[in-house]
Amino acid sequence: MIDQGSQRRPAFQREIRSALRYEEGLVVKALVVLIVVAAIAILRTLYFA
Amino acid sequence: MGRDFIQGADWAVVGLVIVGALTQLSAAWQFLLVGVHSVRNHYRACAPVFPRTAILIPAWNEAAVIGASIDRLMSLEYPKDALRVFLVDDASTDQTPQVAAAKAAQYPGQVVHLRREKGGQGKAHTLNHGLAVILADDWMEALLITDADVIFEPDSLRKMARHFADPQVGAVTAYIKEGSRPGNYMTRFIGYEYITGQAAARRAQNVLGALACMAGGAQLHTRANLVTLGGRIDTTSLAEDTFTTFQTQLAGRRVVFEPHARVWAEEPGSIGALWKQRLRWARGNVQVTIRYRGIWFRPRRGHHLGGVTFGLSWFCLFLQPVFMIISSAALLTVYFTDTPRAWLAFRLLWNVNASAYIFTTGYALLIDPQIGRHAWREAIMFPGLVSLAMIGYASFPGLLRDGLDQLFAVTHRPAVGPHWGWLIVGVYAWLTASMVIAYLAKLAEPTWLGRFISPLLLFIAGYGALLCACTFASYVKELRRAEMTWDKTEKTGKVAIPT
């Protein structure tokens, strides 16, 4: 197994951080969509039921 | 007491109507798990490792695409001395051998051309031919199985290999994206489907610790894992990828989905081609379900395939056509025995479907905005026009009170005309009828009118209904023990990485 850890580690760490940031962004996106679904449900219950 | 029993039975039938929403609920649950992937993932165990990797490509008549594929593989961001390509030519009758020989000359020692003189037995046999050669030499530390047309983004192999820093990992799979350009409505449907089935569902499976299937065009194995599997890919089924995935996990090794390793593939551009591909996959899933009947819903140490959540998500998809038929039958039963309760059950079913649809569609488009921008129309149309109308009506019945609601109200009066009665029967039977219409779209496609009628029928019935019809056909084929034929998906080389 070629381990090029020492010379590539900073770039590698950047990639991992970037991947984790993307995954954290997905949590925010899920919350946004859930809020939209909840808003539709409330609108529907209050005005269109 | 007798009356209570009858009332209880009535409500049980109403409950069966809701079975029609189980798959959507399961999908919504998996999408919720996507959020958990930010904290339950494998990145903390990663390190920049570069195992010596043999890339195994099975090829049958791939002259149009194989040369460019090899060039791209040789230019991956990966140490050049740690990469070798093994092309297994499955008795091609086109220029594949010549192209392969030219590439072997261009990359001496790095591209190996293997040829089977007797081909056509299927992908697993072709892979095994190459595996025997590769495993005979101890150079290989990792094996990447791919297809001739698949385009790897330059950093994809590197991103997959980093998970092998953890010795518990036996295999890693990448995110396959539909890359036909210019595509058509069908490739855009598939592009969207892959967000839901891969980018979302496989992240959720990472969280659960159990992966259902590695992508056939992008699976990276450790040598140790392949040796444990007996150095061979299963040849007894039509789902060799799923079998390999299950065998790896049952042997106690982990399979990881790496969503940031992206590869692009050409997928079917017509209903007929999709049907052939998905029938093979669906039959394979029937075989997997039966072969591994002892593991479902039985949590064990060493693997998570027996987890309840994983089992539910597997069976909700596997049994979706059955659920749809049960739901329609129950709805019609309630309609003919107790009309007002049928209306309640119908609205409950479609309210649940509406919430799940809005959440999963909205979230899927945000999970992969690149594909989302390309295929948002197909994402919206995924359930089909009729189901969309029902979702709209269930969500905002007040808005349509003067239209559909009146129609439904009229049809529920005792003195209802025969035409309205049949219409309501059609609406209540829709979940089953949609599969029939999707199947008709498939049947009509080869006819001279098919070019216009088939897409229309598909947009009416929904892409989801087509997949359900295909799954249903797979049950029938498997029950009849129909011959297992390997229908290769035709590739034309129109795939490209969008800029």
Structure description:
The complex is a heterodimer of chains A (49) and B (499). Chain A is mainly α. Helix content of chain A is 90%, strand content 4%. Chain A contains 1 helix and 1 strand; from the N terminus they run E-H. Chain A starts with a strand and ends with a helix. The relative contact order of chain A is 0.07. Chain B contains 20 helices and 9 strands. Helix content of chain B is 57%, strand content 11%. In chain B, helix 1 packs parallel to helix 13, helix 2 crosses helix 11 and helix 7 packs across helix 14. Among the domains of chain B are: 181 residues, no CATH class; 106 residues, Spore Coat Polysaccharide Biosynthesis Protein SpsA, Chain A (Alpha-Beta Complex), CATH 3.90.550.10. In chain B, strand 3, helix 4 and strand 4 form a beta-alpha-beta unit. Chain B is an alpha/beta fold. In chain B, strands 4-3-2-5-8-7-9-6 form an 8-stranded mixed beta sheet, sandwiched between helices. The longest helix of chain B is centred in the last third of the chain and has 29 residues. The chains are: A mainly alpha (49), B alpha/beta (499). Strand 1 of chain A pairs antiparallel with strand 1 of chain B.
Which keywords apply here?
heterodimer; A: 49 residues; mainly alpha; 1 helix; rod-shaped; B: 499 residues; alpha/beta; Spore Coat Polysaccharide Biosynthesis Protein SpsA, Chain A; eight-stranded mixed sheet; 9 strands; 11% strand
Topology diagram in text:
The complex is a heterodimer of chains A (49) and B (499).
Chain A: E1 2-3, H1 5-48
Chain B: H1 2-18, H2 22-36, E1 49-50, E2 53-59, H3 63-74, E3 83-90, H4 96-106, E4 111-116, H5 123-135, E5 142-146, E6 151-152, H6 156-161, E7 169-178, H7 185-208, E8 218-222, H8 223-228, H9 240-250, E9 254-265, H10 271-291, H11 308-318, H12 320-337, H13 339-367, H14 369-381, H15 385-395, H16 401-411, H17 418-428, H18 430-444, H19 450-461, H20 463-479
Parallel strand pairs in B: 2-3, 2-5, 3-4, 7-9
Antiparallel strand pairs in B: 5-8, 6-9, 7-8
